[in-house]
Amino acid sequence: MFSAPDDATAQRMRTARAYACTTLTLTDLAEKPVWGYAGRTLSGAATSAQGTGWLRVVAERPDKAHGKLWDGPKTAQQLLPPEIPRPVLHHLHDWQAAGWAYRAELYQHTDATVISRSPVLEHDPALPDAWWAQLRTALDSLAEALTERIAVREEYIRRAVPEYTGCDVGEIEWSTAHGDFHWSNLGGPDLTILDWEGWGRAPVGFDAAQLYLYSLHTPATAARVRRTFDHILGTPAARVAELTICAQVLQAADRTPFYKELAGLVKEYLDATCAPKRCVRD
């Protein structure tokens, strides 16, 4: 999804991945591994005596190697219901080297293909009805999962939504969300949901709202998202989720290319849907 980082970071992460393969007795199969943002993660297929898996290596400074993002995949494996389709996390291994903390996560390999290389959808993926039905079931189940993890802080919502959308935030209703529910984290043709780093409590409808707004370049798919999740997005409670996603996009538009591409459509959506008495946008 992201480009390779600077040479020093890339070499450090490749060294860490090679160390993880040696330690876990894996053979690296990734000819073109997948980079995370700014080289924070490096992922790709690997094989062992037990078969093919997916190895993800995460790096943080030692004082940040804890908390929500660090432990998200582990807690998702432990706490979320099995009917939410996601790769099984088989093994974790932590170590430190040269001022960095690393975690190797070995997952079940999946044959699913990510729907989009970019989080923002550019082409209609023509997904089958069964995929959409599975998606609705998965998010409904996730919303009811109990957790104290926080995906989106209330302080952020009450500050960023008025600042970037001009809209007020009233009462917030909460449920459990994936927290980064975009098209690069969804696989098909059998539904698979990837990247569970940030899951936790968020405004009701947060995942459905993100998927909808990230589909605005493809009106047919956006309409399908809207129909599939009308039982959520059609409620007043989900409006806070929509505004929060809009604020996130507009806040990051000047530094993240795919947000910049989406910002114009988000502004149009806000202009079309904001109630005049509750918005003060220019």
Describe the structure in your own words.
- With 282 residues, the protein is an alpha+beta fold.
- It has 2 domains: 7-108, 2-Layer Sandwich (Phosphorylase Kinase, domain 1); 113-278, Aminoglycoside 3'-phosphotransferase, Chain: A, domain 2.
- The chain contains 9 helices and 11 strands.
- It has helices at 7-23, 67-79, 129-143, 154-165, 206-213, 219-228, 230-233, 238-252, 257-273; strands at 27-28, 34-35, 41-48, 51-60, 89-97, 100-108, 113-114, 174-177, 186-188, 192-193, 200-203.
- Strands 1, 2, 3, 4, 5 and 6 form a 6-stranded antiparallel beta sheet that branches.
- Helix 4 packs across helix 8 and helix 8 (238-252) crosses helix 9 (257-273).
- The model has no long low-confidence stretch (mean pLDDT 94).
- It comes from Streptomyces caelestis.
List keywords for this structure.
alpha+beta, Phosphorylase Kinase, domain 1, Aminoglycoside 3'-phosphotransferase, Chain: A, domain 2, 2 domains, six-stranded antiparallel β-sheet
